Amino acid sequence: MLTTILTAIAVLALLTLVHELGHFAVAKSTGVRVEEFGLGYPPRLLTLGRWGGTDYTLNAIPFGAFVRLADEGEPGALLADKRREVRAAFLLGGPACNLLLAVLLFAICFATGWPVPHDLAVGVNKVIPGSVAQAVGFEDGDLILATDDHEVSNSLELIMYARSVDGSVRSVTLRRRGRIFSLNLPAGGPWFTKIETRGVQIRDAAGWTQIVNYPWPEAIRRAIGQTAATAGYLFSLITRVLRGLVPVDVVRPVGPVGIAQLTGQAAREAASSGWWFPLLQITAALSAALAATNLLPIPGLDGGRLVFILLEAVRGRRFDPNRENLVHLAGLILMLMLILIVTYRDIAVPLPFGR
């Protein structure tokens, strides 16, 4: 538990610090007055110094960082007084730095050893003792290659196929300890319509993996592609859900508790194996996801504020700052409510992990 908590704090603090550094760097380079750059969140413990008109502080809550801009001062030094391009650059600075962090961490992973999957399959994570799945013959660690001769390489493909036949999957093709065989499934209930059905819990897995070390130029190239794919997956998933191509209940958003579970599991795997890939990889993925999330056109987020700048460019004049702030406040309240709901689910139904 302590490992999970400390790892989650460290990872989330790093992601937040990098994000705020991006905003800070753009503000400083464009002449925006920054009153304070704080490490951690208030209450303030001490002031480390004051340089360039900015207080650098250390705060009591050891989580991330923040940038406090001036709300009054000489003309031209406030963010609100700057041109649209400068305000947009300020908003993009945070997500951009998160993307750069993701590229760096992914590049380290590719250079020091990236697991390349072969013979992709769906893994049987766990079989509940006394369940129908155990009676049928499933075992922990089985790899599901196909259902009714329909090949599957990940759990979403398996669930989508199972739902297309209302759960009436007749057989599965398994690989177990190098042997491939078919297993007939009894009727009477849905199979594989959820992550866990009839006593069998599935997860994405691979038949076997090969650890590949890439030269640095290739590692960086692959890291850029991996970062783009990770960030882009969030947008494509939302689009597919809205179009009804992916059921809502299959998507599993995670909040702070879910992130703690993921990073804690990665830290335990890294500590037991001496291989830092799991922790570096999940941190890189979270950094790319944080960048993508912040760019969503939701009021209160960087993307929502960018929408107002774009609308301002179209209409040729600025919105009333007070009304715009109310919109962003409403967005933040809704986001907080969503985080609370997701956090409750993360606590009530912890994320399943492979062995």
Task: Provide a short characterization of the protein structure.
With 355 residues, the protein is α+β, with helices and mostly antiparallel strands.
Descriptive overview:
The structure is a single chain. The protein is α+β, with helices and mostly antiparallel strands. The chain has two domains: 83-113 and 213-355, no CATH class; 116-212, Pdz3 Domain (Roll), CATH 2.30.42. Helix content is 50%, strand content 23%. It is built from nine helices and nine strands. The strands form two sheets. Strands 3, 4, 5, 6, 7, 8 and 9 form a seven-stranded antiparallel sheet that branches. Strands 1-2 form a two-stranded antiparallel ribbon. A hairpin with a 2-residue loop joins strand 6 and strand 7. The radius of gyration is 24 Å and the shape is elongated. The mean pLDDT is 91.
Structural class per helix/strand content? Answer: alpha+beta
Q: Element order, helices and strands?
A: HEEHEHEEHEEEEHHHHH
**Helical residues, percent:** 40-55%
| Whole-number total of structural domains | 2
Number of strands: 9
Low-confidence stretches: none
**Main sheet record:** 7 strands, antiparallel
Taking Cα atoms only, what radius of gyration do you get, to the nearest Å? 24 Å
Overall pLDDT metric: 91
> Number of helix segments?
9
End-to-end CA span: 18 Å
- Name the shape in a single word: elongated
Strand content: 15-25%
Which terms would index this structure?
about 350 residues; alpha+beta; 2 domains; 7-stranded antiparallel beta sheet; 9 helices; elongated
